[in-house]
C-alpha cells in the first residue's frame, strides 16, 4: 500500500528561505522521517536533516510538523488527514544552519553552566547504597534524550530572544532538579537556578511537558518542585527558621 | 599551504560514544591536551541506543559471580577466538568502571539492599547486567558526557574525521571537515584514539544508524594498521520486522531475559530443537525447567532462548527457511502470555513505547514478530590488550572499532563494559605516549592539500551517479551475499560486486554546495563502506569453517585449525592483504577454568 | 552562543504559527468557564440572601460561599458568631481564602496565563506580549506565596464536611438525608481532593526530601498526595464547577423554587 503525499518542507540557510513542495510516495507504516529520506534520496540529495537512531532514542530528528514540535522518526504518516499537505519546518527557537538543521549550541552552552554532581563519601565498605524509591524521581528526568523540543517550544525563549541570556530552559532546569533530588549529592544549585538560570521566568504553562517525547512530567515533577525549593530558600520564614535552628543544634 | 582551521592537541579522540568519552576523560585526567571529535551532536552516538545493560561481575544479585565466571562466559561466547587478555581485563575491571559511573552521577536500578541491580542476559551464567530499565546506554552516555563537559574537555561536534596523517610511521594529525560548513579542519596531534563504532550500514537490515560506516576501521587500515576478524559480524536475533520502515530496529534481549520466549508459526518453542553440544550441559531441555530458572538459577539450567546470539539468530533463520515463519518472515516473541502487563511496562518501558508508537503493536497483549538484524562487528583494529595500541605508533582504538575482545561472537552487555574498560586504558596509554614523545610530529602540507582536493572532486564531476543508489546497491549485495549464512560462490560474487561498486564510486556526483550536504557526506562515506565491505567479504571467504558470527553453508562445522588464528587485514602498497596470524597463547592457569564442569 | 541576529532575520521567512489544528479551542473554553465562574461568584457573595436553606424549608444547608459563617448576619446559618461588627455580606468575609488559594494555584496560573494573558495561548503559538519576565518580578513574584494560601485553606474542606454533617439534622433531633446533603458532601470531598493535590503541599509534606528512605512517613504522604496531584487539573475544574452548582442548588431550595427531595 502506498500513497502520494504533499510535503511542504522548509528549505534555506542563514540567508533565509521558504517552504518547498514535494510530491512524494508514503508507504504503509512509514514515519515522517522516512518520507523526508525519500525526498533526499530521489529529489533533493542535499536536503539537510539530522537523525541517528530512527527509534526515538537519540533525540536528533526534532522538527515542527504541522506547527507542532515533534520527533520526525516517531510521527507516523497515518496520523495525518489524507489529501492535506504536511508542513515540516526546523525548530524555531534556534538559528537555522540549513534546511531542517538548526544550531542548537545554546543548549550545550547552558549545560556547561550547571555545576556537576558532587557526591558525599561512600559507605564504610566503599559501596554506595540508595533505595530504589530514592532514585526514581531523578531517574524520570534522566530519561531525557536531549531532543530539545521542550527548549524549542518554551515561549520564554521562543518568543523572547533576549531571555536566552538568563533562562536555561526546561531541560536544564530539570537537570538542576535532578541533581538537587539526587540522594547522594551535596551541592546547592538553588541560588543559581533563581538568579542566573531563570526558574522564575517559567510560568508553568506546561508546553514543555506537552511536547516531551519521553513523556517526562517536566513541569509537575521538576519545575514546580524547583520553584518550591526556591520558595524554601528565599520566601519561607518557617523553613528558614528551621534551618537556622538545625544548624545550631 | 591550505588556508584552513588548525588546532593542536596531545590526544585527539575520534568518536563520542562510550569508548571515546571514557578515553577522553582519562587522557584529560592524565594531563594530556585532549579533544573529542564526533560526527553527530554530543550525546547522540550509538551508545545512547544500548538497552540491556553493562555486564560486570559485581555479585550484587548472585554472590557466586566473579570475574573468572565472566571471563569464561565471554571466551565461550566468542568460541575461544577472543584475545584472552582482553577478556580477562574486561572481566576484572568492569565492576570498578560501573561503580565509577555511579560516582559521576549515574542512577542504576537498585536491589533491595540498595546496591546496583543486575539482570540476566544471553550467555551470562549469572544475572550480571547493571542496568537502568531498558535505557542503560542513555544513562551511560549522559553520565560520561556530563563528566566530560564538567572537566571542560574540548568537543568538536558534527566534525567528521576524513583521513589520518602520518609522519613516517607514526600518527601526526587528522584531517576533518565540519558537516555544517563543509570546511576542513586540521588537527595536529601526537596521538589519535579511534572510537568510531561499527560498520552496520554496510548491510540492509540493521539496528545501526547512518554513523556506522566503518570510518575508524578504514582510517586505521588506510594508515597501515592491522584489522582482525572482520568476517565476524553479529546478527542480533531480535529486530523488528514489520512495518518495513522499522525493519531492523532492535528489540532488546532483555525481553527474553525477563521471560519472553520464541515461537514459530505453529506455536512451538523451537529453541529446544537447537541446543548445541557445547551448551547442552547448562541449557534446560524441558519447558518446565526453563521456566523455573527465572526464580532459581542454582538448581535449574537456563532457557535455550538465552543461548548466545549467533545460535538464536541461526535458529530463527532455519525456522523461517523451513516455512515455519510468520507472515512477514520472522518468528514470534511472546512475553504477553507469560508476564503481567504491569510487569512488562515496568521492566521494558522503552520497548513497550517503541512498539506502541512505531508499529501500533501492544507487546503486553499479544506475541509480536521479530527477525535477525545486523547489529555489531566483532572484528576491528588489532590492539594490544593492555594499552589499546594499534600496530601504528600513536594510534589507539577502543570500543566497537577495536577487535579481539569478543572473538567470533559478542555476548550482550559485554560491549558497554568493553567501552569503559578499554576506553580508559586507551586514554591512559595515549596520554603517556604523547607525553613521552619529544618533538611534535610533522604534517606534510602538500599531502593535506591533496586530500582536500580529492575530497571535493564529487562537486566538480557531472553526470556521475547518485551516492544514495550506490549505497543502496552495496547494502543489498552485502545483505544477500555476505549475510547470516554464507557460501563460497556467493562470497566470490560479492567481492566482485564490491569491486565494481568501487569503480563506480569514483564517479559519483553531488548537487548543491558544501554547506550541510548529506549527499556529499555520503559520497565520502562510501569509501569507508566499500573498504570494510571488501574486508568482511574477503575474510569470510578465507575462513572455511563456521564459528560464532560467521556461518558457512559449505563448511558447517568448526575447524580446530581455524581456532588458532585470526584473519589479519593489512594494507600493502595499494593492495589489501589478508594473513592468518596465530592467536596469543592463554596462560595455563586460565586454561584450567575451562576444564572444570560448568558450575 | 547561539543568540541573536540569525534567528531574528529568519523570523520573516515563515509564518509565526504553523499549527493547523484547533489550538484556540482549549484556551477559549477555559476563558469562558473561568470568566463565568468569576462573574457568578461575585454575584453570589454580593447577594446575601437565600444562601441558607434553614428551618423554614425543613433543612440546614449553608452555601459553601458562606461557610464557615462567622458573623451574626447568616440568620440561622451562623457557624460561629465571632465577628459582630461586620457590616457587609458574610460571603465577602470568606471570599479571600479560596480566591488566594485558587489564584495562586499552579494549575490555575497555567490556565489564566494561557487563556487570559495569552502568554502563550497554546504551545508553539506566539506569545501575545512583546516583553516577558514571567514570575521574576512584582507582582507575579508573589505567586511564590502559594504555600501560605495552602496553609490557610486546609481548614476549609474540614469545615465544609462539618457543615455537611450538620445538614443531616432535619430539625429538633431528627436525622435524615436529602439530595442537598449529598451535594454538600460531594462538594466538601471535591475541595478536599483538589487541596490534597496541591503542588506546594506535596512539596512541603515530603517532596522536599532528597532521600525518601530517610522519612518513611513523609514518603507515604508524598505518594498519596502525588496520586491526587496527577489529576490536579481535573479536581480543580470539578471542584470549581461544583461549588457554584452547590450554591445554586441551595439558593433554589432556600427560595422555595424547588423542594429538596429526602432520600431517607
Ligand atoms: C540498538 C542497540 C542496542 C544495544 N544494546 C547493547 C547492550 O544492551 N549492551 C551492550 O553492551 N551493548 C549494546 N549494544 C552495542 C553497543 O551499544 C555499541 O557497540 C557501543 O555503544 C559502541 O560504542 P562506541 O563507543 O564504540 O561507539 P559509538 O557509541 O557508536 O560512537 C561512535 C562515535 O564515533 C563517531 N564517529 C564515527 N565516525 C567518525 C568520523 N569519521 N569522524 C568523527 N567521528 C566519528 C560518532 O559520531 C560517534 O560519536 C547495542 C547496540 C545497538 C545498536
Ligand atoms: S512550563 Fe515553564 S519551562 Fe515549560 S514551556 Fe512553560 S514556561 Fe517554559
Ligand atoms: S525533557 Fe523531553 S522534550 Fe526536553 S529535551 Fe528531554 S526528552 Fe526532549
Ligand atoms: S532519529 Fe533518534 S530520535 Fe529520531
Ligand atoms: S498547586 Fe493547585 S492548589 Fe496548590
Write a short abstract of this structure.
The complex is a heterotrimer of chains A (249), B (599) and C (264). Helices cover 36% and strands 16% of the residues of chain A. Chain A is of the alpha+beta class and 249 residues long.
Number of H/I helices of chain C: 11
The helicity of chain C comes to: 40-55%
Mean pLDDT of chain C: 91
| Radius of gyration of chain A from CA coordinates | 22 Å
State the CATH architecture of the largest domain in chain A: Orthogonal Bundle
Give the total of beta strands of chain A.
7
Bound molecules: flavin-adenine dinucleotide, iron/sulfur cluster, FE2/S2 (inorganic) cluster
* Main sheet properties of chain C: 2 strands, antiparallel
- pLDDT < 50 stretches of chain C: 1-9
- Distance between the amino and carboxyl termini of chain A: 74 Å
Q: How many alpha or pi helices of chain A? A: 10
Share of helical residues of chain A: 25-40%
Backbone shape of chain C: globular
- Cross-sheet strand order for the largest sheet of chain A: 2-1-5-3-4
Tell me what portion of residues of chain A adopts beta-strand conformation.
Answer: 15-25%
Account of the protein in words:
Chain A is of the alpha+beta class and 249 residues long. Chain A has two domains: 2-102, Beta-grasp domain (Ubiquitin-like (UB roll), Roll); 105-248, Orthogonal Bundle (Fumarate Reductase Iron-sulfur Protein, Chain B, domain 2). Chain A contains ten helices and seven strands. In chain A, the strands form two sheets. Chain A has a five-stranded mixed sheet with strand order 2-1-5-3-4. The radius of gyration of chain A is 22 Å and the shape is elongated. The model of chain A has no long low-confidence stretch (mean pLDDT 94). Among the domains of chain B are: 236-375, Succinate dehydrogenase/fumarate reductase flavoprotein, catalytic domain (Flavocytochrome C3, Chain A, domain 1, Alpha-Beta Complex), CATH 3.90.700.10; 455-565, Fumarate reductase/succinate dehydrogenase flavoprotein-like, C-terminal domain (Methane Monooxygenase Hydroxylase, Chain G, domain 1). Chain B has helices at 18-29, 67-77, 84-103, 136-151, 215-222, 254-257, 277-280, 287-293, 309-321, 341-347, 349-359, 414-436, 445-460, 467-481, 488-505, 518-542, 588-591, and strands at residues 5-14, 34-37, 54-55, 118-119, 129-130, 154-156, 159-167, 170-178, 184-194, 227-228, 233-240, 261-263, 331-334, 368-377, 380-381, 395-397, 485-486, 551-552, 565-572, 575-582. In chain B, α1 (18-29) runs parallel beside α4 (136-151), α2 (67-77) packs across α3 (84-103) and α15 runs antiparallel to α16 (518-542). Chain C is an all-alpha fold and 264 residues long. Chain C contains eleven helices and two strands, in the order ααββααααααααα. In chain C, strands 1-2 form a two-stranded antiparallel sheet. The model of chain C is unreliable at 1-9 (pLDDT under 50). The interface between A and B is large, with 58 and 65 residues. The structure holds flavin-adenine dinucleotide, iron/sulfur cluster (SF4) (2 copies) and FE2/S2 (inorganic) cluster (2 copies).
Amino acid at each position: 500500500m502506498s500513497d502520494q503525499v504533499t510535503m511542504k518542507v522548509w528549505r534555506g540557510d542563514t540567508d533565509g528561505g521558504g517552504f518547498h513542495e514535494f510530491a512524494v510516495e508514503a508507504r504503509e507504516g512509514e514515519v515522517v522521517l522516512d518520507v523526508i529520506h525519500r525526498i533526499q534520496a530521489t529529489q533533493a540529495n542535499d536536503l539537510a536533516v539530522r537523525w541517528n537512531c530512527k527509534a526515538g532514542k537519540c533525540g536528533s530528528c526534532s522538527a515542527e510538523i504541522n506547527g507542532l514540535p515533534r520527533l520526525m522518526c516517531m510521527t507516523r504518516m497515518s496520523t495525518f488527514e489524507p489529501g492535506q499537505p504536511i508542513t515540516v519546518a526546523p525548530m524555531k527557537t534556534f538559528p537555522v544552519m540549513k534546511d531542517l538543521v538548526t544550531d542548537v549550541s545554546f543548549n550545550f552552552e547552558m549545560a556547561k553552566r550547571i555545576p556537576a554532581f558532587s557526591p558525599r563519601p561512600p559507605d564504610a565498605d566503599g559501596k554506595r547504597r540508595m533505595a530504589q524509591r530514592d532514585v526514581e524521581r531523578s531517574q524520570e528526568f534522566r530519561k531525557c534524550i536531549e531532543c530539545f523540543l521542550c527548549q524549542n517550544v518554551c515561549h520564554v525563549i521562543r518568543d523572547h530572544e533576549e531571555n536566552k541570556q538568563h533562562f536555561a530552559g526546561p531541560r536544564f532546569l530539570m537537570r538542576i532538579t535532578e541533581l538537587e533530588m539526587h540522594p547522594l549529592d551535596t551541592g546547592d544549585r538553588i541560588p543559581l537556578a533563581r538568579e542566573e538560570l531563570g526558574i522564575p521566568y517559567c510560568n508553568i504553562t506546561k508546553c514543555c511537558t506537552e511536547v516531551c517525547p519521553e513523556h517526562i512530567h517536566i513541569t509537575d515533577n521538576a519545575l514546580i518542585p524547583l520553584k518550591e525549593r526556591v520558595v524554601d530558600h528565599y520566601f519561607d520564614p518557617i523553613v528558614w527558621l528551621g534551618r537556622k535552628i538545625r544548624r545550631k543544634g | 599551504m591550505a588556508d584552513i582551521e588548525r588546532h593542536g592537541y596531545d590526544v585527539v579522540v575520534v568518536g563520542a560514544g562510550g569508548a571515546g568519552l571514557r578515553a577522553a576523560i582519562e587522557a584529560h585526567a592524565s594531563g594530556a591536551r585532549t579533544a573529542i571529535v564526533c560526527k553527530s551532536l554530543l550525546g547522540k552516538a550509538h551508545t545512547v541506543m544500548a538497552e540491556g545493560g553493562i555486564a560486570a561481575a559485581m555479585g550484587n544479585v548472585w554472590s557466586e559471580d566473579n570475574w573468572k565466571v565472566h571471563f569464561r562466559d565471554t571466551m565461550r561466547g566468542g568460541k575461544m577466538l577472543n584475545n584472552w587478555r582482553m577478556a580477562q581485563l574486561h572481566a576484572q575491571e568492569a565492576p570498578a568502571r560501573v561503580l565509577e559511573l555511579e560516582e559521576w552521577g549515574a542512577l542504576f536500578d537498585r536491589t533491595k539492599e540498595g546496591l546496583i541491580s543486575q539482570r540476566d542476559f544471553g550467555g551470562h551464567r549469572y544475572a550480571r547486567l547493571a542496568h537502568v530499565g531498558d535505557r542503560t546506554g542513555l544513562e551511560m552516555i549522559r553520565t560520561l558526557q556530563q563528566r566530560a563537559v564538567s572537566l571542560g574537555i574540548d568537543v568538536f561536534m558534527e566534525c567528521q574525521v576524513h583521513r589520518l596523517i602520518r609522519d613516517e610511521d607514526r600518527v601526526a594529525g587528522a584531517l576533518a571537515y565540519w558537516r555544517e560548513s563543509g570546511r576542513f579542519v586540521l588537527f595536529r596531534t601526537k596521538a589519535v584514539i579511534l572510537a568510531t563504532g561499527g560498520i552496520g550500514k554496510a548491510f540492509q537490515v540493521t539496528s545501526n544508524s547512518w554513523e556506522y560506516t566503518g570510518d575508524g576501521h578504514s582510517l586505521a587500515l588506510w594508515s597501515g594498521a592491522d584489522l582482525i576478524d572482520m568476517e565476524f559480524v553479529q546478527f542480533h536475533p531480535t529486530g523488528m520486522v514489520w512495518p518495513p520502515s522499522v525493519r531492523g530496529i532492535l528489540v532488546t534481549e532483555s525481553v527474553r531475559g525477563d521471560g519472553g520466549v520464541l515461537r514459530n508459526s505453529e506455536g512451538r518453542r523451537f529453541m529446544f530443537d537447537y541446543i548445541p553440544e557445547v551448551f547442552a550441559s547448562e541449557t534446560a531441555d524441558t519447558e518446565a525447567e526453563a521456566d523455573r530458572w527465572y526464580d532459581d538459577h542454582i538448581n535449574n539450567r537456563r532457557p535455550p532462548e538465552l543461548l548466545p546470539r549467533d545460535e538464536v539468530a541461526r535458529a530463527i533463520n532455519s525456522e523461517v527457511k523451513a516455512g515455519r515463519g510468520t507472515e512477514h518472515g520472522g518468528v514470534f516473541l511472546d512475553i504477553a502470555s507469560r508476564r503481567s502487563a504491569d510487569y512488562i511496562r515496568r521492566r521494558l518501558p522503552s520497548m513497550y513505547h517503541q512498539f506502541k508508537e512505531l508499529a501500533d503493536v501492544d507487546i503486553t497483549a499479544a506475541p509480536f514478530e521479530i527477525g535477525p538484524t545486523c547489529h555489531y562487528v566483532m572484528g576491528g583494529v588489532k590492539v594490544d590488550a593492555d594499552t589499546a595500541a594499534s600496530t601504528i605508533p600513536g594510534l589507539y582504538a577502543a570500543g566497537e572499532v577495536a577487535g579481539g575482545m569478543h572473538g567470533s561472537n559478542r555476548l550482550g552487555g559485554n560491549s558497554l563494559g568493553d567501552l569503559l574498560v578499554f576506553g580508559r586504558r586507551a586514554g591512559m596509554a595515549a596520554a603517556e605516549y604523547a607525553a613521552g614523545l619529544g618533538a611534535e610530529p610533522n604534517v606534510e602540507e602538500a599531502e593535506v592539500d591533496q586530500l582536500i582536493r580529492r575530497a571535493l572532486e564529487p562537486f566538480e564531476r557531472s553526470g556521475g551517479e547518485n551516492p544514495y543508489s550506490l549505497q543502496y546497491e552495496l547494502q543489498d549485495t552485502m545483505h544477500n551475499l555476505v549475510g547470516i549464512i554464507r557460501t563460497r560462490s556467493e562470497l566470490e560474487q560479492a567481492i566482485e560486486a564490491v569491486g565494481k561498486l568501487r569503480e563506480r564510486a569514483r564517479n559519483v556526483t553531488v548537487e548543491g554546495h558544501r554547506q550541510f550536504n548529506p549527499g556529499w557526506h555520503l559520497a565520502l562515506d562510501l569509501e569507508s563502506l566499500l573498504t570494510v565491505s571488501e574486508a568482511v567479504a574477503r575474510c569470510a571467504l578465507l575462513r572455511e569453517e563456521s564459528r560464532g558470527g560467521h556461518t558457512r553453508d559449505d563448511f558447517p562445522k568448526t575447524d580446530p585449525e581455524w581456532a588458532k588464528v585470526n584473519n589479519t587485514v593489512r594494507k600493502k602498497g595499494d593492495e589489501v592483504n589478508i594473513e592468518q596470524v596465530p592467536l596469543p597463547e592463554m596462560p595455563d592457569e586460565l586454561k584450567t577454568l575451562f576444564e572444570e564442569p560448568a558450575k | 552562543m547561539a543568540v541573536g541576529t540569525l534567528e531574528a532575520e529568519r523570523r520573516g521567512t515563515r509564518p509565526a504559527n504553523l499549527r493547523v489544528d484547533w489550538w484556540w479551542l482549549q484556551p477559549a473554553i477555559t476563558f469562558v468557564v473561568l470568566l463565568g465562574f468569576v462573574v457568578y461568584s461575585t454575584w453570589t457573595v454580593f447577594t446575601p440572601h437565600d444562601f441558607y436553606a434553614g428551618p423554614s424549608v425543613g433543612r440546614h444547608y449553608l452555601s459553601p460561599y458562606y461557610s464557615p459563617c462567622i458573623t451574626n448576619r447568616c440568620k440561622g446559618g451562623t457557624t460561629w458568631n465571632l465577628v459582630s461588627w461586620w457590616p457587609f455580606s458574610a460571603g465577602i468575609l470568606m471570599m479571600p481564602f479560596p480566591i488566594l488559594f485558587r489564584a495562586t494555584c499552579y494549575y490555575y496560573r497555567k490556565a489564566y496565563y494561557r487563556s487570559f494573558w495569552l502568554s502563550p495561548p497554546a504551545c508553539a503559538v506566539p506569545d501575545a506580549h512583546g516583553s516577558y519576565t514571567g514570575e521574576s518580578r512584582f507582582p507575579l513574584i508573589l505567586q511564590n506565596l502559594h504555600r501560605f494560601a495552602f496553609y490557610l485553606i486546609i481548614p476549609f474542606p474540614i469545615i465544609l464536611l462539618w457543615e455537611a454533617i450538620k445538614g443531616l439534622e432535619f430539625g429538633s433531633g431528627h436525622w435524615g438525608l436529602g439530595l442537598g446533603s449529598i451535594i454538600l458532601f460531594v462538594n466538601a470531598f471535591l475541595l478536599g481532593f483538589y487541596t490534597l493535590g496541591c503542588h506546594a503541599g506535596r512539596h512541603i509534606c515530603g517532596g522536599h526530601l532528597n532521600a525518601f528512605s530517610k522519612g518513611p512517613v513523609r514518603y507515604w504522604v508524598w505518594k498519596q498526595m502525588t496520586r491526587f496531584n496527577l489529576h490536579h487539573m481535573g479536581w480543580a475544574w470539578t471542584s470549581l464547577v461544583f461549588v457554584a452548582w452547590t450554591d445554586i442548588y441551595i439558593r433554589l431550595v432556600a427560595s422555595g423554587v424547588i423542594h429538596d427531595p429526602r432520600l431517607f
